[in-house]
Amino acid sequence: MKILIPPSEGKANIKKPMDIKFGETDFKYIDEVQKVIRLLSLIGNTEIRSIYGTSQEKAELFHRQNQDAMNSRVCHAIDRYTGVVYDHIEWKSLDENAQDYMDRHVGIFSGLFGLVTPRTLIPNYKLKMNVQALQHFWRPVLTNILKEEDLIIDLLPQVHRKSYDKKSVNVIEVEFLIHNPNTNKTSTAGHYGKAVKGEFIRYMAMNNVQKIADFKGFSYEGFEWNGKSFVKNAN
User: Fold this and answer.
1) Radius of gyration of the chain (CA)
2) How confident is the model at residue 114 (pLDDT cuts 50, 70, 90)?
3) Confidence class of residue 50 from pLDDT cuts 50, 70 and 90?
4) Contact 102/201 with Cβ under 8 angstroms?
5) HSE of 227 in the Cβ direction (CA atoms, 13 Å)?
6) Chain Cα centroid distance, residue 100
7) Fewest Cβ atoms nearer than 10 Å: which of 26, 123, 215, 234?
8) Using 50, 70 and 90 to split pLDDT, how confident is the model at 45?
9) Chain center to CA of 116
């Protein structure tokens, strides 16, 4: 079983990274990472502002950072990623069994690295999956990886879901939804859904969840499993 989750857009700037460079690690898909870095080298200075969605100065910084990934010092991915989902996972408060569960079962999609686990060693970077159509670059690689799993639990946003072939795997896409009883309409939980997603990942790790039937044991601030999605009735 593999639980697919997104990276965070923001990354922690670790003050004391490990004394090892990414190019010196045993990362399984390092050849693919080098190909992505070569693709980035084709981007001109006039394009990078729109690609990174920041000022020109920051875009140039992020671009250099990505291109120098092989020579950059690393830390565990779970320490690198920040944001609402990761805040609610609360990795450091999980016991060893729960952390081991996450490292075995959780796969974090990344525009630069393809697929990492919480304990994968990665440098600082900033690269969205849809830059230079990276979802299409990674699609055959990630699909081949996921074919080995008996079940895929997909907690990804839509852009990341284009990075593998759903027809080739046994996948359930889990959504977090708000239902309005007055209009009988349902909408995505949006930013609030990130907190629920983090809590759900934490629940799975703490309870060694191995099958979909176990989802019904999770509830958070009104969100309940209805057999297809986690739904909360609007007040």
Assistant:
1) 18
2) very high
3) confident
4) yes
5) 0
6) 17
7) 26
8) confident
9) 8
